[in-house]
Structure formats: structure tokens, C-alpha cells
Amino acid sequence: MSVKVVYCSVWVMALLVSALAESHANAVSCPQALALLNPCLAYLTGQASNVTVPCCQGANALKDMVKTKPDLRSMCECLKQAAAAAHVITDRAKALPGLCHIQVPVPIDPNVDCSGLLQDVKNV
């Protein structure tokens, strides 16, 4: 699979990452996030019809790693850029949280204002 697909998957997952506590020890890097979401690429780009267990496991792991609003904003930017580069199918990205049973406090949208997440998201 291409790097574009990985980046798209990361965008979706980053948005899923937001149901977290205010404090956190280590920030997750964009490459780490993309690696966690790599199993979701086939679904997000239309190459597979269903999400896989490894995809949802990666999404949940990423969600658990993003602990602060600044981390959420950083992941949002990372995943937004990756999704655009990989040509992620927006409807599939929006469906991923529900399919993986993950609650996302931010909109999954290619036009989301990541910088506004610090003001808009109450509990990350």
C-alpha cells in the first residue's frame, strides 16, 4: 500500500484520538500515529470493504496515546495532511469511529480547523 493511504488512515484515526485525559507523559509523533493506522488504509481508500481487527486496535491505541488538547491538534494536522495525500474516502473516514466503537469529540471532516480544537474540544 502507498504512503498516501497510510496518511489518510492516520487523519481519520487522529480525529478518533480525542476522548482522553488532560495529562499525558509522552506525545505521539505523526509517524507513530500513521504506523498505528496503517491497517486501516485499505478500508479508508476503498481497497477493502470492511475494517479489520488490527485497524480498530491501532485506532484505539492511538486514541489512548493522545492525552492533551495540543496533542489532539497536532494529530489533527498530521492526519488531515495524510488523508489528503492518500485520497481517503471521507464517508469511510467518518464511519470508522462507529465501526471501531470509538467516540470522537471532534468532527471527522477534511475541512476541520485543527487550530480551533484547543478552544472547541472540552475533554480530550
UniProtKB/TrEMBL annotation:
The keyword Phosphoprotein does not apply. Residues 30-114 form the Bifunctional inhibitor/plant lipid transfer protein/seed storage helical domain. Residues 1-21 form the signal peptide. One of its GO terms (biological process) is lipid transport. Keywords: Lipid-binding, Signal, Transport. InterPro entries: Bifun_inhib/LTP/seed_sf (IPR036312), Bifunc_inhib/LTP/seed_store (IPR016140), Plant_nsLTP (IPR000528). GO terms for molecular function: lipid binding. CDD domains: nsLTP1 (cd01960). The keyword Membrane does not apply. It comes from the Eukaryota. Belongs to the plant LTP family. This is Bifunctional inhibitor/plant lipid transfer protein/seed storage helical domain-containing protein.
